[in-house]
User: What shape does this take?
Amino acid sequence: MASTLAAPDPGIWRQFPSRVATFCLVELQKLRHDRTEIVTRAVQPVLWLVIFGETFNRLHAIPTGNVPYLSFLAPGIIAQSGMFVAIFYGIQIIWERDAGVLTKLLVTPTPRSALILGKAFAAGIRSMTQVVVVLVLSAILGVSLSGNPLRILGAFAVVMMGAAFFACLSMTIAGVVLRRDRLMGIGQMITMPLFFASSALYPVSIMPGWLQALSRINPLSYEVDALRGLLLHSQAHLLRDFGVLALAVVLGVTAASSLVGRLAR
Amino acid sequence: MSELDRAVVTLPAPLGVSADAGAARPALLCEGLRHRFGDNVAVDGVDLRVEQGEVFGLLGPNGAGKTTTIRAINTLLPVQEGYVEVLGYDVRRSPMAVRRRLGYVPQQLSIEAALTGRENVTWFARLFDMPRAERKERVAAALEAMGLGEVADRIAGTYSGGMIRRLELAQALVNRPQLLVLDEPTVGLDPVARDGVWERVAEMRAATGMTVLLTTHYMEEADLLCDRVALMHLGHIQALGTPDELKADLGPGATLDDVFRHYTGDSLHGGGESKRGIRETRSTRRTAGRVG
Assistant: This one.
């Protein structure tokens, strides 16, 4: 092993995609070795669709135009369950800090923003499993979602970006509170408000004014809007939605990477 | 052997280093390094010069400032005051260049327990931008060199403490660092596992001529392994030299243990213990107990 030097610097523009790919790959390897999370995480979306969805489908209490409520709900549940996975992702970075792995990662030639971006998309990989669960379940329940592979691919991209943002939010909080139990508490506290103040369960039009205002600054609403547009062919502002999500990811990466150093002290 | 002789012997040794910017520079240079945590001055004006190819030991009681010094050197902490240069690169100005040439094993036993040994090492090979064509072979070689060839595809969570430490060495060595930084590499390991770790480090050093900077509490290990040692206490370097020189200064029959006690004796009464040092060492021991 003596003859050659350390690998050369590939330059920052090749480094970013390479780091993101590396962290995603590691996440996939972890999922392959331990599949329990895929199963346990599937329980919640199943409950939402089968119990909540089926019930409200019969009530016709929520005006969803000419779309059955179950179809209206399915994209919302995809977004919600992806967010639930990502919002607790900061726990992993605190765990890695407690286990000493984070210090080792920070001593590799990886810019902090590349580390955070890599972790954010790794969280997205975990959320992907939720999309698959809901899509399969929807097919079983007879929900008519788009079968167009391009649209489904688009839905994966939307969930990836949404999860990346919520993972960054989680890692930002992790960088502030520095402890797993506190992050757990804050995560529990914000998931439901984020969920309810979005268009996941009901259209924005039936919300009271103050909730509509909250919904407008909630990235989850834009994620749901994009997913409905892609999977239900409903009226959506795809360009705006992608733009908002991309901006949210950039802001999230900036905030989280400026705080990640605190975890190494 | 005097310091001058050693410099002549060791300087040309590292292979391939000559092509690098830091060829004529020492592996490590610290000048007036000072670091504060709030009111607590953890490192209080440290001057160090470690030549390329040396094995240099930083010794001292818990809370002496060893880990803080090491974290300033490996770019984990910002250099608050003073100057630190690694392999010719100013740590403050070129942290990425330093990281690319440095291998680091922290005090705590730390691997990704959900991945296999091979996946753990491949992960770090990727993080060092190792070209795909070489990656597989070099990962296998690093695992083999650390005696983990046969268990490489087992989940690392099933490894013993000594195996985890050797896996961490494989992670740190896979990119062939010119400076290997080991912070208490044998804390919490049984004597056999400790010997295993040191043997591998000595083999790698002989094969590559890399510089090794380590901290340890075990004086007999420092005596055996290190070309030179520095005794650190209360953020200062109290004594520096070859183990033989330091022992000779104290009189005939002195051991490195005696040297340690001579320079840091008051720490036994709690003089130099910072809360931070105790916490970190404890958590290491706990991890070692859990995984080993």
In short: The two ends of chain B are 39 Å apart (CA to CA).
